[in-house]
Design a protein that fits this description.
The protein is α+β, with helices and mostly antiparallel strands. It has eight helices and 13 strands. Helix 1 (about 1-20) packs antiparallel against helix 2 (about 25-35).
Length: about 350
Amino acid sequence: MEKLFKILLLAFAIGTLASCGNDRDAEAYFEANAQEMEIPKEEDPIPVMKFIRHHIKNKEDLNRIRKEYDFSTKSSPSHKVITTMNRKEFRFFRVGDTIVVPEVNTQKVEDYSIFPGIYPAAKDISKLIVLSNKYQCYACYENGKLVRYAATNTGKERTQTYPGRYHTNWKKKKHRSSLDSTWVMPYNINFHLQAGNAFHQFTMPGRPASHSCARQFMHDAQWLYDWIDLSKFDETRAVREEGTTVLVLDVFDFSRPKFGPWLDLADNKSADIQLPADPQNFELPFIPINQIPHGARGALKDKERHIHAEDTLRARGWLRPGVKITSSVNFNAIRKRKRAAEEAKKKAEEAAKMNQN
């Protein structure tokens, strides 16, 4: 009642000032007293959901969890909730592991998002992906409103998915790596042209495990594939219009022997995720030059940035002392050279036999 009285009194005062023709005074009065009105912000639509740590004691306990969360039905809501919360496929749940389970199972993955349901700074961005290496998950926003929450397993310590601003460039439903054709990546979405970072479906062990890509469960990979916008290129294949912005916020704590900090959360509001105040001007990534394939280095816009990237990463503590970065390796080229050498050897041996005869 007191707050309503203040608002009515303020409105009366402004009206009085305006009726006297003193609009500037009215505006000044409103600006000086606007905070007293305590205009409410848009409330976060995601409820507070409590998390429970659970130690899998024995095989019977594991079987109970499998039954409760529909181990045999990957498409079920309960299955998606438990695997998303633990960032791993059910087949990687083991006796002796500690997992996290919901106190209440709403069977809706977004209810357990550790990202806020509303991101005010992104209200003018039609589509935005925000990914946390630390917590191994990502959120998709449409004009600042969360529309998808998903688990990911990003780059392992020597081939990390580095923090920075990226954008989605091209996609392919079934992509074979240009570095290793044995790597088949369903629903592949490239988000760095030279380094080859991509979202795609792949094995999810519950911890950073990739060669700098963002792995996903199949249902998330399919959804993201259909949702994102792609870059538009000119006739020289230069980016004319960027696709959906991707923000990689932080780094994983590789000093942890198993799993990650999502096991430490009491609820979905406890994560220390810092969303950028200006998403579209978030810093570009520092990707070391030796992690970019040789054939792609000529297309780099700021080569010096990549040459000195490792120094920056170490100075910021994003690379631990003593950890050596794994250089980009073209396994296809290695196999090709090996086959050529074997064929040449075989021909030489056949020629030697012919000469002996």
